[in-house]
Amino acid sequence: MRARRAVAALSLAVAMTGSGLVVAGSAQAADNRCYITASSAKLRSKATTNSTAIGVAYRNNRCNDLDYKGSWVKLRMTTGNAKGKVGWVRRDLVHEPTVDTCTPAC
């Protein structure tokens, strides 16, 4: 029964995507690129300022967002001195692309 539901849901998503409609959430999952906007941002082991700093990223260093917890975002750094490191950064120090899930525009 679960398999049939999964196939039906997938078929609906494919049909909607093929028709030009964007399925809510699918565009967000596809574009997780971001970059640091602050002059520097500490990557932390946990989503709190009391946790250990595991690295520092600098303005315009690129990243991929992996997870969210309150006002924090978990990042994998893709450029700069912290390249390859994974850690938590306050969301206000990171630019994430906005995703328009309405086609045509809302």
From TrEMBL:
<keyword id="KW-0732">Signal</keyword>
<dbReference type="InterPro" id="IPR003646">
    <property type="entry name" value="SH3-like_bac-type"/>
</dbReference>
<protein>
    <submittedName>
        <fullName>SH3 domain-containing protein</fullName>
    </submittedName>
</protein>
<feature type="domain" description="SH3b">
    <location>
        <begin position="39"/>
        <end position="94"/>
    </location>
</feature>
<feature type="signal peptide">
    <location>
        <begin position="1"/>
        <end position="29"/>
    </location>
</feature>
<dbReference type="Pfam" id="PF08239">
    <property type="entry name" value="SH3_3"/>
</dbReference>
